[in-house]
Amino acid sequence: DFSKDGWWAVFNIDESYRHETNAIGYVLSPLLFPEQNEGTSATETSKQLLQFRIVKQEDVSYRGTSRMVYRVLLVVEEIPQKQAIEDVALSIWQDGNKSWKEFTVFLYLPEMNTNSSAYGIANFTPSGFVDFNIQDYTLWGTKWAKD
Q1: Which residues contact 100 (CB under 8 A, 6 or more apart)?
Q2: From the CB of residue 42, how many other CB atoms can be counted at a distance below 10 Å?
Q3: Parallel, antiparallel, or unpaired for β 102-108 and 120-125?
């Protein structure tokens, strides 16, 4: 019950009065309905996020600083709008990654080398979004390069 931003409130099975204050937690929509969302990202109330695939998760913590890096391949046919890419990174951070002191999402377009420079880079701390950058130069020599 109570869908909001792609999340559903979860209640005990014997809960007779379902109100958000009685929820025991929340679950991301694609986890509830995997057959509808296989291979896709979470949905938001008014829009579908870009499809993506997490290629690699790497704990790169250092000197008492917890740091996680995700490499994410966007499943797209054309270069998406900056906001759409940022929304993917934000949804990944919100999906259980808020506790990392530093959390970075590297975003790639199809056929880009995911071990190289990323097209989009998003950085987060436990308090939220820090910055987001698009690196157009990473498209040089790819099918995505603009003439």
Answers
A1: 66, 67, 68, 124, 126
A2: 21
A3: antiparallel
Specify the residue for token string 């966007």.
Answer: 74
The reported pTM is: 0.68
Where in 11-79 does DSSP place strands (E)?
Answer: 25-28, 51-59, 67-75
Tokens describing residue 43 = 């949905």
**Residue-wise pLDDT tens digits, 1-34:** 566 666 777 777 776 666 777 778 877 766 665 5
85 sits in the region (left: phi over 0; alpha: psi -120 to 50; else beta) called: alpha
Q: What is the pLDDT of residues 114-136, one digit of tens each?
A: 999 999 999 999 989 899 999 99
Rounded to a whole number of angstroms, the CA Rg of the chain reads 17
Phi and psi at residue 94, to the nearest 5°: -70, -20
